[in-house]
């Protein structure tokens, strides 16, 4: 089983969107028994809060199911427990490295790197553009899944 953790700043917009998109893609290919997917934050700002209403609205629009998710902060133990820790931007990646004490096992990646891009996924908390965020998350998750299927 492959364990994937999506990480953003607050764990209410980008990382939860990625979590539910990835779960949707995995289930569409009947691979749900092969994956454990979760999400977390690098900050403590939103701890305990549910998925952002804008993320929920975009997922509903795209017919992607989601559940309640209480935001949580990434821990050093997550580095041990997960095979892939996927950040949304450079600040996330730096903070993930700080939390985990480095990346000696090379488990920390940018989501869009799987799509061959060096871009960050813009934070809709600031931009208000959940459409653009979704397009990048969709592209990144599809590319990530294609990469991970090679390990199955």
From TrEMBL:
It comes from the Bacteria. It is found in: Cytoplasm. InterPro entries: LMW_PTPase, Ptyr_pPase, Ptyr_pPase_sf, Tyr_Pase_low_mol_wt_mml, Tyr_phospatase_low_mol_wt. Its main location: cytoplasm. One of its GO terms (molecular function) is non-membrane spanning protein tyrosine phosphatase activity. Its EC number is 3.1.3.48. The active site is at 8 (nucleophile), 14, 123 (proton donor). Pfam families: LMWPc (PF01451). GO terms for cellular component: cytoplasm. Residues 2-147 form the Phosphotyrosine protein phosphatase I domain. It catalyses: O-phospho-L-tyrosyl-[protein] + H2O = L-tyrosyl-[protein] + phosphate. Keywords: Cytoplasm, Hydrolase, Protein phosphatase. SMART domains: LMWPc. PANTHER family: LOW MOLECULAR WEIGHT PHOSPHOTYROSINE PROTEIN PHOSPHATASE (PTHR11717:SF7), LOW MOLECULAR WEIGHT PROTEIN TYROSINE PHOSPHATASE (PTHR11717). Belongs to the low molecular weight phosphotyrosine protein phosphatase family. This is protein-tyrosine-phosphatase. It comes from Amedibacillus dolichus.
């Amino acid at each position: 089983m492959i364990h994937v953790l999506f990480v953003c700043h607050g764990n209410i917009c980008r990382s939860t969107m990625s979590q539910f998109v990835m779960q949707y893609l995995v289930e569409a290919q009947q691979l749900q028994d092969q994956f454990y997917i979760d999400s977390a934050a690098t900050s403590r700002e939103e701890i305990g809060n549910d998925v952002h209403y804008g993320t929920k609205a975009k997922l509903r629009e795209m017919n992607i199911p989601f559940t309640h998710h209480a935001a949580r902060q990434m821990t050093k133990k997550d580095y041990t427990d997960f095979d892939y820790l996927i950040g949304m931007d450079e600040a996330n990646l730096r903070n993930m490295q700080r939390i985990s004490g480095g990346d000696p096992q090379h488990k920390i990646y940018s989501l869009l790197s799987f799509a061959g891009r060096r871009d960050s996924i813009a934070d809709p908390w600031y931009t208000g553009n959940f459409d653009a965020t979704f397009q990048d998350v969709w592209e990144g998750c599809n590319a990530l899944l294609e990469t991970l299927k090679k390990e199955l």
